[in-house]
Amino acid sequence: MIGRLRGVLAEVGEADCLIDCAGVGYMVSCGARTLGRLPAPGDEATVHVHSQWSEDAGPRLYGFLTRDERRAFTTLLAIQGVGPKAALAVLDVLPPGELAGAVAREDKAAVARANGVGPKLALRIVTELKGKPLGDVTFAPMAPGVHVEIAPPAPSLAGEAVSALLGLGVAEVNARRAVDQALIRLGDEAELPAVIRAALQELGR
Q1: I need a surface site. Which of 39, 84, 126, 177 has the fewest CB within 10 A?
Q2: Domain boundary residue among 64, 82, 116?
Q3: What is the CA radius of gyration of the chain?
Q4: How far is Cα 28 from Cα 131, in angstroms, rounded to an integer?
Q5: Which of 24, 43, 64 is the last residue of a domain?
Q6: Tens digits of per-residue pLDDT, 142-153?
Q7: Alpha carbons 123 and 98: distance in angstroms, whole number
């Protein structure tokens, strides 16, 4: 099974990318968030891969920029009713750390923001992920009858910038992609106004 690919990024499509490894081109399905954070075509790229095989479609590769994202993806796939498309959609709107926080808060609405994930499936995801590792965070299930108030995490620079773009009417997936690109250009130490300006420039390209 393929676990990682490193090679030249040959093409980037709407839902996948082509990585040339020593003359062999591997087509890798990715979420919009991952695609938006890839380097420019022609540059070297490394993706962590989850491999799947089906009799109908044959081999399929799903790519992620971090091991945590791949781990969260495989954890989501173990839930009944969650296929690769839905798992990628969840991770597009909730990276592993944010997904773990949503699970801890039992925030079904946050999960239901993912494309193709309705309220019932969002509830199942939140329920079944309790106690399971999502990246480097594991939230243990609470004992029956015990209610714990969990404060939401402090907003990150990226989160604040995305929220600002959402307030301007930008779609969430596009906002996250633009902010990710802006942070790659400016670095995590950039101030919020500069990140927002750079993200708007990315959206205007």
Answers
A1: 39
A2: 64
A3: 18
A4: 30
A5: 64
A6: 444 444 344 444
A7: 16
Owning domain of residue 72 = 68-138
Asked whether residue 175 falls in the same domain as residue 124, the answer is: no
Q: Report which of 172, 168, 89 is spatially closest to residue 125, judged by C-alpha positions.
A: 89
Q: Which run of H or of E encompasses 11?
A: strand 4-12
Asked, for residue 13, whether it belongs to a domain, the answer is yes
- Measured from the Cβ of residue 160, the count of other Cβ atoms closer than 10 Å reads 14
Mean pLDDT for the chain overall: 83
Supply the pLDDT for residue 136: 54
pLDDT of residue 133: 67
Q: Could you tell me which residues are beta bridge partners of residue 4?
A: 48
| Contact of 186 with 198, CB cutoff 8 Å | yes
Mean local confidence (pLDDT), 56-81? 89
Residue entry with tokens 């944010």: 98
Contact residues for 16 (Cβ-Cβ < 8 A; gap 6+): 27, 28, 29, 30
CATH number at residue 10: 2.40.50.140
Is 57 in a helix, a strand, or coil?
coil
C-alpha separations of 172 from 37, 42, 44 in Å? 15, 28, 28
d(CA 180, CA 148): 33
Rounded to whole angstroms, how far apart are CA atoms 72 and 129?
10
pTM exceeds 0.70 for this model: no
Residue 146, pLDDT score: 40
127 contacts: CB under 8 Å, gap ≥ 6: none
pLDDT tops 90 at residue 187: no
